[in-house]
Write a structure and sequence with these properties.
- The chain has 276 residues and is an alpha+beta fold.
- It has 5 helices and 12 strands.
- A hairpin with a 7-residue loop joins strand 4 and strand 5.
- It is globular, with a radius of gyration of 19 Å.
Length: 276
């Protein structure tokens, strides 16, 4: 079930199915990103701005950054209620706010995403974001509940934090990671980040906050490596570990390109879970 209310807020129900959960029947972080992606795509489609619709205009959507705060992870089989909305353009970005609540109206997560529409026919030049916002519509300025500050803090690159490399992981890009154009789906990067970490840590902790940037597209045959580091070699023993992540591609000439990076704050599972 979905609707767009009179204030241009897209509203939809989601159910946490077993295939959306981890080994503890808690929602996967990737599932939360899937909800954001699906809702944003459907909202845009209803307003004539989906990727297939924009392709007919020689344009396309890309997401460049998302900052998500997780209050808790839904167990199976919980019903969730999502709201998402477009906001006025910010620099070259198209900001989108998202909030997810449970049946009691308690917050599950909030997220601010930066999207961009690119002109494919003119060297992928960004389209003026307000043009797209005007087409989709945004809540009135009086609706403070449906406005999140789009001014995300400047990201400090992985190499400048500085970090101690803790783990490296080499994923195998699979057929289902990619789309029609052989581009890797944005959510696959989240799964690779999780897979790079040791199982005992993942059994004990979940992500409470993630700030992630998609820097370059990757493709089915790319040679990539996931790095995870921290400023303290004992970071993962803390109550709320802070980890830094990047994905790096090795080019045919031996050079490297950073294609993705993120910062995560973790909390014990017990602090992010409530039974239903």
């Amino acid at each position: 079930m979905f609707t767009i209310n009179d204030d241009n807020v897209y509203q939809s129900d989601f159910t946490t199915y077993t295939y959306n959960t981890d080994a503890h029947y808690h929602a996967r972080l990737a599932f939360y990103f899937q909800m954001l992606q699906e809702a944003a795509g459907h909202h845009a489609a209803l307003k004539g701005c989906s990727i297939p619709q924009l392709n007919t205009e020689g344009r396309t959507w890309v997401v460049t950054r998302t900052k998500m705060d997780v209050r808790r992870y839904a167990p199976w089989p919980e019903q969730l209620f999502l709201e998402t909305w477009a906001q006025p353009g910010y620099k070259l970005h198209f900001p989108r706010g998202t909030a997810v609540h449970d049946a009691q109206g308690e917050a599950i997560l909030t997220a601010m995403s930066w999207w961009a529409v690119l002109d494919i026919e003119h060297n992928f030049r960004p389209v003026r974001p307000q043009e797209i916002t005007d087409r989709i519509g945004s809540p009135s300025s009086a609706d403070s509940r449906h406005f999140f500050d789009p001014a995300l803090a400047k990201r400090v690159p992985y190499e400048d934090v500085p970090v101690i490399d803790l783990y490296t992981f080499k994923p195998q890009i699979s057929y289902l990671d990619t789309d029609f154009n052989k581009h890797v789906n944005n959510i696959s990067y989240i799964g690779w980040m999780i897979d790079s970490l040791p199982v005992p840590f993942l059994d004990a902790y979940k992500v409470a906050q993630i700030d992630v940037s998609w820097l370059h597209q990757t493709f089915r045959d790319d040679d990539i490596l996931v790095y995870t580091g921290a400023t303290d070699s004992r970071e993962m023993e803390k109550e709320r570990p802070v980890l830094h992540h990047k994905i790096q591609r090795t080019e045919p000439d031996g050079s490297t390109t950073k294609v993705w990076e993120a910062t995560t704050v973790w909390a014990p599972r017990s602090a992010l879970f409530k039974g239903i």
